[in-house]
Amino acid sequence: MSSQDEQLPAAAAAAPEAAAADEGMTWWYRWLCRIAGVIGGMSCAFAGLWNCVTINPLNIAAGVWMMLNAFVLFLCEAPFCCQFIEFANAVAARADRLRAWQKAAFYCGMAVFPVMLSLTLTTLLGNAIAFATGVLYGMSALGKKGDAISYARIHQQQKQMDEEKLTGSLEGQA
Question: Which residues cross the membrane (predicted)?
């Protein structure tokens, strides 16, 4: 084991905690995104394999792309499923350091490409959960919704500022 391999587990363990703390994702939402990614990977793999059983070259290309999507989803969201791949933990650690909007754009883009190649029911349904994973990450990038008390305070402050501007402009005209 090299010194780089010894440092990787420590960096991999610290990266998810730092990324989660920065984005404010709760533990259950983080697990929801991971589970959606794994289910999306299974969906892409099965639909991609089914899509390859044809003579249409665009369907075959879309099926191969969907199986590649499944591999990437498994690699990023569940590296323990890819224990036979030497670089799986390094890729997962790097994916955990990405911001939520970057993951959202990546996963949604990966899911849209096969649909553009071959618009069939198999590609639509196969990529739907992978796309939904990207949407979940995108929603986490937007942040948490504020409470009603904070919105009421902000609204009241804006109302006071508007009234002060209105009275100031009326005094200036008089």
Answer: 31-50, 70-92, 104-137
